Amino acid sequence: MTNTKKPLLNDTFVVIIFAAAILAMPIWLDPIGGNYPDLLQKFAIYGIFAIGFNILFGLTGYLSFGHAAFLGVGSYAAVWSFKLLTMNVLPAVVFGVVFAGILAAIIGFLSLRRTGIYFSILTLAFAQMSYNLAYSVLTPITNGETGLQLARSDPRILDRLFSDGSVGAGLPSTDLFGETMSGYPGFYFCAVLLIICFYISMRIFRSPFGLMLKGIKSNQNRMRYTGLNTRPYMLTAFIISGMYAGLAGSLLAVTDPLAGAERMQWTASGEVVLMTILGGAGTLVGPMLGAGLIKYFENIFSSFDDNVLTQAFSFMPDSVVEIVVPVVGLFVGSGWHLTLGLLFMIIVIFLPGGLVEGFRRIVNYFRSGGKAKPQSVEAHNQAGE
Prior knowledge:
Elements: H1 11-23, H2 25-28, H3 37-60, H4 68-84, H5 89-111, H6 116-137, H7 139-142, E1 148-149, H8 157-162, E2 175-176, E3 179-180, H9 183-206, H10 208-225, H11 231-255, E4 258-259, H12 266-279, H13 286-299, H14 306-312, H15 318-329, H16 336-350, H17 354-367, H18 377-382
Antiparallel strand pairs: 1-4, 2-3
C-alpha cells in the first residue's frame, strides 16, 4: 500500500506563516538584540545560501564543499554590474544568479562523474581553484587581495544615460528605483527574495522532480537498474543549488558593494554545511534556522566580553562572580566557536535531524502527554517537511 500521507499544513498557509515570521523579524528578534539591519540582512542572505545548499545535500545526499565558489562569483558579477551598468540592484541580482548557474553547470558536469567522498573532494578542489584564480591569476577582473570595489570613475552606462548629468561627491549607493538598499530597506529586499526562494524550494520538495531526487538519495543504484539516467536530475539540482548561492553572493554585494576572494574560501563552504546540519538537512526551514543560529553566534554571542558578563552576574556575591565570569568567558566572546562546536556535537549525537527534529520531539511529547516516541529522521524527510 502506497504512502499517501499529506503535509500537515497547506502549502499556501505555510508560506504565509513563513513570510509573516520573516517580515516581522525586527520585532521578535528585538529582545535578544538581533534586530539591527546589518544582522537581519545576514540572516536573510545566508538563509538563501543554506536553503539552496539543502536542495542538493538534503534531497540527494551529495555533500558539496565547493559552494563558496558560487557565492563569490555572484558577488563579483553583482559588483561588475554596479561598475559597468547601474547601481540598480535588479540587474546585479540577475547577473549574479546567471553567472553562478553557468559555473555550477561546468563544475557539476565534471564533479558528478563521481559520488560520495570523491564528489566532495572534487567540489572542494574546484572551489580552491576558483579562490586562487580570484586571488592572483584573475587580478584584472577581481582586483586580487584588495577586492573589487566601486570607484567614481566607473562607467555606469545606464545611470549616466538616464541621469541629469550631475555626479555626487562620494561613491554612489545601491538602490531599487531610487530606494537606497541600506538599513531596513535592504533587509526587506533580501527578505522578499528569501520568501520567494523558500517557496521555490518548497515546490521543488513537493514536486515529482523532488521525489526523484529523494529516490536518488535513498538508492541511486536501484534507480539506475530500472533504466533511469540519474545524472540529468543530479546536474539540475546542482545548478539550482549553485544559483541560490549566486543569489546570496549578489545580495552580499547589494548590501555592501564589494567582492573579495575570501568569500570563495573553503571555510565559507564549510559554514553552509554546518548551517544545514544544525538546522536539519532535508527539511524546509531547518537550514535557515541553522544559518540564523550561526550568524547570531558570530555577531551577538561573540560580543559578550567580561564586562557584559560581570553585569549579567552582578546579582551574585563578588567572590562568586570572580569565579563564574572567567569560566563562562571561555564559551562566549572570542570563545564562541567552542560553544558552537559543543552545540554541533550535541545535535549530531542526539538530534541527527537537527533543530527541527528537536522541535518535533517536543511537540510530539506534549501532544501525547509525555508518551510520544520521536519519529525517525528518514520519515520526516520522506514527508517532505
